[in-house]
Amino acid sequence: MGDDFRYQAALNSYINTDRLIKGFDLFPQTFQGKPIKLFYSTPSCYTKAVNDYVTANDYNLEIKTDDFFPLSDGPVNYWGGFLTSRPASKRFIREGNNLLQVAKQLAAVGQESYDNPGLNSLKEAMGVMQHHDAITGTELMDVAHDYHRLLYKSLSSANDAVDLILS
């Protein structure tokens, strides 16, 4: 259906998924003598179904105790270095979070509104920085620059807000 670089038209994906579901309802199919039923689900429903199947069939699932890294997503494609990539970005994100926590505490002590525009931009930026590519440093360089721009701008606004709170 998509990934970081292709998932742009959610409505089209849902329409096509609806068509698949309807098609399987209109023209029932089986696999190994069991009916195939397509439907929208959630991770918890999927996990429950797997657990029910494993329990009903007396399977013992292997417990993974080794590391997931380096991760391979192709014959010669390996992902590694997540923990060491873009250390300056990771430091910048930590500093942003530190300022946010201090600013929130100062606002509380100073009985300032939690809905402070200067702090809201940093709250939003820190939310963006939790994206799986931002926090691991696996984003494209242009995206990294955009993250830095967003964080720098919001840090400036938050610093101004803290100055007002302290004055």
From TrEMBL:
GO MF annotation terms: alpha-mannosidase activity
GO biological process: mannose metabolic process
Cellular component aspect of the GO annotation: lysosome
Keywords annotated in UniProt: Glycosidase, Hydrolase
Transmembrane segments: none
Cited InterPro entries: Glyco_hydro/deAcase_b/a-brl, Glyco_hydro_38_cen, Glyco_hydro_38_cen_sf, Glyco_hydro_57/38_cen_sf, Glycosyl_Hydrlase_38
Domain Glycoside hydrolase family 38 central: start-end pairs: 77-151
Pfam families cross-referenced by the UniProt entry: Alpha-mann_mid (PF09261)
PANTHER family per UniProt: ALPHA-MANNOSIDASE (PTHR11607), LYSOSOMAL ALPHA-MANNOSIDASE (PTHR11607:SF3)
Protein name: Glycoside hydrolase family 38 central domain-containing protein
